[in-house]
């Protein structure tokens, strides 16, 4: 009795390998965008936990934000002036809203829209 061959053919293996490489490449392009956004959220959270922020001005808070981004190597967001202050239901809020575009290959881009907000303690950020 003759047994049928089981397993992956060379063509099937190349297709699976191509898909794996494609998704790994996409992850290498998209991953840093989300890591940088996580750094922005951590910077906002760190500023909100700082006790001296309640008596700080908006410019001082912006400087603190820029320093925290420098420590976390968030170079793309650091170049933008994205930190805004808004009045929310719970008091004054720090809001970061930006868009990042990364070339995938050729003329195909990946666009990420990011939004983070954090309530300031004690209604800080006086002018």
Average pLDDT for all residues: 88
Number of H- or I-type helical stretches: 3
What portion of the residues fall into strands of 2 or more residues? 25-35%
Helical content stands at 40-55%
Structural class: alpha+beta
Summarize the topology:
Layout (H helix, E strand, L loop, with lengths): L9 H40 L8 H14 L3 H5 L3 E6 L2 E15 L2 E12 L8
Antiparallel strand pairs: 1-2, 2-3
Helix pairs in contact: 1-2
What does this structure look like?
With 127 residues, the protein is of the alpha+beta class. It has one domain (31-123). It has 3 helices and 3 strands. A 3-stranded antiparallel sheet has the order 1-2-3. Strand 2 (91-105) and strand 3 (108-119) form a beta hairpin. Helix 1 packs antiparallel against helix 2 (58-71). The longest helix is centred in the first third of the chain and has 40 residues, at 10-49.
Structure characteristics:
about 130 residues; 3-stranded antiparallel β-sheet; 3 strands
Summary, kept brief:
The chain has 127 residues and is α+β, with helices and mostly antiparallel strands. 46% of the residues lie in helices and 26% in strands. It has one domain (31-123).
């Amino acid at each position: 009795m003759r047994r049928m061959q089981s397993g992956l053919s060379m063509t099937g293996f190349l297709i699976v390998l191509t898909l794996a490489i494609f998704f790994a490449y996409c992850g290498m392009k998209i991953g840093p965008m989300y890591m940088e956004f996580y750094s922005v959220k951590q910077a906002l959270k760190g500023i909100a936990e700082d006790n001296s922020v309640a008596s700080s001005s908006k410019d001082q808070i912006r400087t603190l934000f820029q320093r925290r981004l420098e420590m976390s190597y968030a170079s793309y967001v650091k170049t933008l002036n994205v930190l805004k202050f808004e009045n929310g239901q719970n008091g004054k809020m720090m809001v970061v809203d930006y868009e990042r575009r990364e070339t995938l290959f050729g003329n195909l881009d990946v666009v990420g829209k990011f939004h983070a907000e954090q309530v300031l303690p004690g209604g800080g950020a006086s002018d």
